[in-house]
Amino acid sequence: MSSKNRAADPGEEEFLSQYHPEKYASISITVDAIVVGVAKNTTDNYRKLDRQSLKILLVKRDNYPYKGYYSLPGGFVGEKETFEDTLKRVLSDKTGLSDIYSEQLYTFGSVERDPRMRIVSCAYISLVDISRTNISGAEWFAVEEVSEMELAFDHNQIIEEALKRLRGKINYTDIVFHMMPKEFTISELQEVYELILGKKLLPAAFRRTISDKLEDTGKMTSNAGHRPSRIFRYKVLLQDMQGNN
Amino acid sequence: MSSKNRAADPGEEEFLSQYHPEKYASISITVDAIVVGVAKNTTDNYRKLDRQSLKILLVKRDNYPYKGYYSLPGGFVGEKETFEDTLKRVLSDKTGLSDIYSEQLYTFGSVERDPRMRIVSCAYISLVDISRTNISGAEWFAVEEVSEMELAFDHNQIIEEALKRLRGKINYTDIVFHMMPKEFTISELQEVYELILGKKLLPAAFRRTISDKLEDTGKMTSNAGHRPSRIFRYKVLLQDMQGNN
DNA sequence: CTAATAGTGTCTATTAGACAGTATGTT
DNA sequence: AACATACTGTCTAATAGACACTATTAG
């Protein structure tokens, strides 16, 4: 976005040639990623469905500060790097992920959040379909576990904010589908909504409202120990997929 | 929100004492404020109501770069300053405002947005009741005017995003009331909604839904050239007022 | 047959949209 | 009187909540 066609201004050119950035106070910026997905917890009872849970990717820090603590995958923004470039690099280096949906969450700037120096964190939420990814260098943790852990820096707080944002957006965007496998049942999808919203939904009403967004694959589940379920996929509605607001 | 009680770690203490921030790439950060309010445009026809319009505060730059251009009020974040502190300072110094509702909008970080060096802008939306403020050093511009102007840096784009955010939040938060005078008629309030949403609303439906949030002052308008209107104030509902996502 | 889930039908409650109709102060 | 706005009533449409009922498989 940009590089405008302003009229050339000799005064400004002169000014810029005399400008010495190093004289000014400067602050480091990191990008931290809250990578969220859902995974099934296999159960023993052949009749029961596998329950799903919300997962977040964390990396174990092997350097100071907070050596040995888990933290969000993150890294410093280079001088010629956009936040999105940094995010890509960090995700690739620390988790092995590429090409995943991401959006900026919030920028955390409290003065004491990093003991080294003033470091501001621009946090991004990334949503992935766990079944289609191979992770290296990072581990998945269930959100309930995470809230019991003491993470590095203010990362517990950042995760809280990320979950709030998800809760807020799930009902007026289609972002959930970034976390879903290509094909899924309505019950599975409903469970993901319930995990994010933190409450049970009524099946009849859920089916009614969600069905516009779904396309029947014609396939059915099998060997589930109970009535088989239709399998759907997300019907892309031309518009969204980028949850821009 | 900070300063945790971690166990002391001699290794970390050693590490920190050897840490030299100046070796690392660093980037400057500014906070820019999109200050939004509504003002009445007086009309000549004694019968007609004064129409309102959305206004934004801009300052004329008297230094390079973009000398002579209008821009959002903004300033550099000091090394020991939170974004909110910077925002307060900037608002006070450049516009004369203090104690106004603000929330972080988005952080703009494209590499070429400032010709001097890499400067990232953390943008805040601030909402004010124009009738209760005295501005010094900045001027109000109607949003339609602003979209015709070429502002400094990427500030046109930032304002676009801010208006989108307002549109998105107006219906599920009570943030509008930060822009309203203490007392107002329902028609005035409806017009503000219409300005932000960019569409007409039906009076009957608007009254129905908004009335829960309003308290009758018992007063009426007068000398309006037509039927007088009840005057209301915002009924604070214990909860919100802080439009926390 | 039974446990467990899938899926439908329907009644009710709530909310939004549409729009006509009534009310009232100012000149 | 007539203009401009204030405000109410009511019908309809759309949506959400509740819940009972039917359907279907593996074991």
Describe it for me?
- Two copies of one chain form a homodimer.
- By secondary structure, the first copy, chain A, is an alpha+beta fold.
- Chain A has helices at 10-17, 83-95, 143-148, 155-170, 186-197, 203-210, and strands at 28-41, 51-60, 70-71, 74-76, 101-108, 119-127, 139-142, 214-220, 230-234.
- In chain A, strands 1, 2, 3, 4, 5, 6 and 7 form a seven-stranded mixed sheet that branches. A two-stranded antiparallel sheet of chain A has the order 8-9.
- Chain A is elongated.
- Residues 240-245 of chain A have low confidence and may be disordered.
- Chains A and B meet through α1, β5 and α4 of A and α1, β5 and α4 of B.
- Chain A binds a DNA duplex (27 and 27 nucleotides) through residues 45-49, 185-187, 202-205, 207-209, 222-230.
